[in-house]
Amino acid sequence: MAIIGFIGLGDMGQVIVPRLLEAGHEVRGWNRSPGKSADLEALGMRVAQSPAEASDGADVVLSIVTDGTAVQSVALGEGGIAETLSPEAVYLDMSTISPEVSRAVSQAFAERGLTMLDAPLSGSPVTVRDGKASVMVGGNESAYEKARDVLLAIGPKVSYIGGSGLAVQAKLSINLLLMVEVIAFGEAVALAERGGVDRNVMVQAILDSVAASPVLSYRGPFVLEGNMPDKPLADVPLQQKDMTLVLEQARLLASPAPLAAIANDLMNASRGMGFGHQDFVTAHRAYRRMGGQDA
Predict the structure, then answer these.
(1) What's this model's pTM, rounded to 2 decimal places?
(2) pLDDT for 135-194, tens place per residue?
(3) CATH of 170-290, one of 1.10.287.3610, 2.40.420.20, 1.10.1040.10, 2.60.320.10
(4) Burial 41-65 (b: 16+ CB within 10 A, else e)
(5) Among 51, 117, 138, 261, which lies 20 to 30 A Cα-Cα from 71?
(6) Residue 89 has pLDDT above 80, yes or no
(7) Per the residue annotation, which of 146, 157, 171, 241 is the catalytic one?
(8) Catalytic site residue 132?
(9) Which CATH superfamily is domain 3-162 in?
């Protein structure tokens, strides 16, 4: 069993750490803001006072934080992972950030004789809790093999994508597809309602059709009356953070992404209508309002 440093005890950390503990690993966790460790401590996680303390003596260090700036801070800043990580250990960042930032951090680690891989997780707290999340890894393949068993404790689908930054590149494309799919779902349901189809009936018809998908199976019912969760799996601003990264990649690579741009505009509309605090499937509500179905 491995000694694991875990950086970032937010919504995803709250469901990942228990799976690592259940697999028998020792976990030392750290979070920038206090107050998120109590439940995990009760399960056996030890609390570290800094990323460096969490990484000291660890076999594997995992981080999942808000953005690229946060990754650079916990990895390379004062009291960061690089200060104490062993050359034999592997650091894997599971955050969704730009490939350029990920490669820069990996290069800075390499210059210190250390190994950093990008290992973004595809899934939500629901899919992690159900054991259905997937992890993609980019960087040194030998280091990936060393960390693979730890990642399999998080989800059953772990795959090596290629060189440094390519896993987060793949993750951004997956998030593009996911967001367009969820927003198209909202458009389809709103159109059917406008034509007289009951919303409950339409949602079930989609989930029973060839257009059904894992993400719609658990997110689709959120649009039914009274089903929108008080705590979103991913609210509108969080999803827009990822879509901003997608659109920046499209610009840098001169790759057309018109559906991503339209999806982002629907998120702008949702925020403008006051729905930004809800899960991003709330685009359905924005479509209804634009179509005159809601005041």
Answers:
(1) 0.92
(2) 999 999 999 999 999 999 999 999 999 999 999 999 999 999 999 999 999 999 999 999
(3) 1.10.1040.10
(4) eeeebebbebbbbbbbebbbbbbbb
(5) 261
(6) yes
(7) 171
(8) no
(9) NAD(P)-binding Rossmann-like Domain (3.40.50.720)
